[in-house]
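Hey all, sorry for the wall of text incoming. These are the two entities for the joint prediction.
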Amino acid sequence: MGIVTPGFFGKHREADPKLPPGQYETKDFPVLSAGPTPNIHQGEWQFSITNESGDVKRWNWDEFMKLPIETVDTDIHCVTRWSKFGTTWRGVSLDTLFAEVDTEYGFTMAHSYGGYTTNVPLEDLLHGKAWVAFEFGGEPLDPEHGGPARLLVPHLYFWKSAKWVTGLTMHETDELGFWEVNGYNAYGDPWKEQRYYYDS
Amino acid sequence: MLKVPGWKGALAGQHIDIRLTAPDGYQAARSYSLSSAAEAELAAVSVELMPDGEVSPYLVRGVSVGDQLEVIGPLGGWFVWRPTQLEPIRLIGGGSGIAPLVSILRTHIQSGNSAPVHLLYSVRTPDYVYFHDELMELTAKAGADVTIQYTRQAPAGWTGTVGRLDAARVTTWAATTEPTSSTYICGPTQFVELASDALVAAGADPATVRTERFGGK
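and here's what came out:
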């Protein structure tokens, strides 16, 4: 417990078990991005996974839409302390995508249009925990929120759910992505409050 | 202004988290941009009152001089300007988004950096101009070229236009600045989207445009 703040009693007193420590619920959908929003059309969008041999498995939009599509209902948690409950997405499971990829490496780097990167261990992308999502709330994903498609890894802080995602590369060790070299945590578990690089 | 023992100063553009703790241990924290980076043991933030908020009403109305708050930071390594950067600087601020830009201006002056600075500041009315006198003094010292866009009401005798900062105004302004600039844009989400889209449409390299957004869409 921190320093008690005189006269502060707080507003959102009801302890919601869905809320990780240090978070508050918002009904809004805040936008946080490091730079301008890239304008990527479905026709030019593609997604690829590159393994340690340099083999590239690639999908364009039409190919992607023919893959099994899942509906995901999940809570999301942003490191800037907002959480949003009951969001609904549609996308393709990373299990489906990795079924076609041969790799021994345990770490991935997600790459986005515009140059954004974020590192995620492979285990955190498999077993029904992550998707490449292209719909939010029944609508095509807005560019501000990562459209045409973004990574969705809801069990980690939301900066790991790379907007405008275009690919994953496989890595032997856990290298750091964009926010991870800029002061944020390498892993980012909201339930352990792993916000900043020094949180464990 | 917060006195933070052991505070070594921050980089221009960084923010802090302020965490409040109730007697029973309940906590709430929010992020605030620093408007001053360099001073040892002092951190300056500007808090805009969110009427339905949990932390800002307390910080605006409930805090007295001498009260203790918990500060986490300085934070963020991207929306940052370093005195070793020699390229021209474009700053675009919307409302309270001016705070980290003020920090950049202060650091620019203190470091003796001679890069040209252009500031475009969108604000509702003259009453909403943050740190008005200080801002004018700072921009004068920094040799900054300042453009204020009043969106609702301008001061008496104002000869410029009044109205929203639209893409055409951003483009016109950008044309008066160096294409090689690094750009820092801070403000509400829609404002930042509009300003950054207009800059990129006008030819700015997206990799040179750093943004800090607040609020939802």
